């Protein structure tokens, strides 16, 4: 099958489009999905560069890619609730070969029927970023009506979904961006801050939740904008419990996936109700995966970059 392999960690040049990859066979509890579309996440670039090898037991050649929308091609032993031909989306391939290929294996228990109104390109934009934003804002913060959330990097993959989840919960949303500031207005944020001209801590105070998608000094400057008892959530760098205590607030690192099927089922319902809409700013063929990595590493993408595997 066709796939993008890496045979070693490194830069863009370790990404190799090849047509002789071995098509996997589903084991017990697994399904084989014919990938129609997949998307890119900074996680893929981090794995490629070798930063995740210490956490995951990867072997080469390795196929990257954690998001898939496609059609079930085969099911393994014991799978009774998913059938060949089902149109599905999920997160797969975090721990082993991923979806930047013609086929990917997924745990049947994680597989969900696509939102009927979305094509594969848009469905593939959702899983990884929705699971992340959901774990932070819904599971950890339990964001509620009338609360205020500051979302850093609100125009990116996780950010644009987080904005929509927060609005759905009835929260007031403050978002940061620079070149993508107009997109924040399209998303309906209540207050958009251009981080290239304004220090957010000069204009924001007393928020209930900060969603930090950047780490570093952005995280350090975020403590002071929280109200007492508020919560700082990060996807990038574990916030210090000591600093949280000193500020009278809470902290959580986002990372472990929430129940995938439950969240993606709810997300599909939200899509059908018009409450959640993935934004795809570029669609590339599998052969151009290097360009997709380059775009993500440029750190200024809007919404998601999707790779279309079946035309
Ligand atoms: N722990 C986990 O489980 C987990 C899961 C998902 C993601 N992550 C991590 O979370 C981070 C965000 O992921 P993502 O997919 O949302 O990334 P992304 O889509 O690549 O983010 C791109 C966005 O970042 C914005 N940005 C860049 N620098 C900024 C700054 N200084 N202040 C505010 N916004 C800035 C850009 O806005 P402008 O172009 O307007 O500047 C752009 O829209 C990544 O580091 C990723 O690895 C972790």
How is the topology of this model organized?
Blueprint: E1 3-6, E2 15-18, E3 30-39, H1 42-49, E4 62-63, E5 67-75, E6 87-91, E7 103-107, E8 112-113, H2 120-123, H3 127-140, E9 148-151, H4 157-168, E10 172-177, H5 181-187, E11 191-194, H6 200-203, E12 207-212, H7 216-222, E13 226-234, H8 241-247, E14 250-253, H9 260-272, E15 280-285, H10 289-297, E16 304-308
Parallel strand pairs: 9-10, 9-12, 10-11, 12-13, 13-14, 15-16
Antiparallel strand pairs: 1-2, 1-4, 3-5, 3-7, 3-16, 5-6, 6-8
Describe the structure in brief:
The chain has ten helices and 16 strands. The protein has 311 residues and is of the alpha/beta class. The site of NADP nicotinamide-adenine-dinucleotide phosphate (NAP) has 30 residues, from helix 1, helix 3, helix 4 and strand 10.
Q: What would you say this structure looks like, in words?
A:
This protein is of the alpha/beta class. Helices cover 27% and strands 27% of the residues. It is built from 10 helices and 16 strands. It is globular and about 55 Å long. It starts with a strand and ends with a strand. The protein binds NADP nicotinamide-adenine-dinucleotide phosphate. NADP nicotinamide-adenine-dinucleotide phosphate binds at residues 41-43, 129, 132, 152-153, 155-159, 176-180, 195, 213-214, 218, 235-236, 254-255, 296, 299-302.
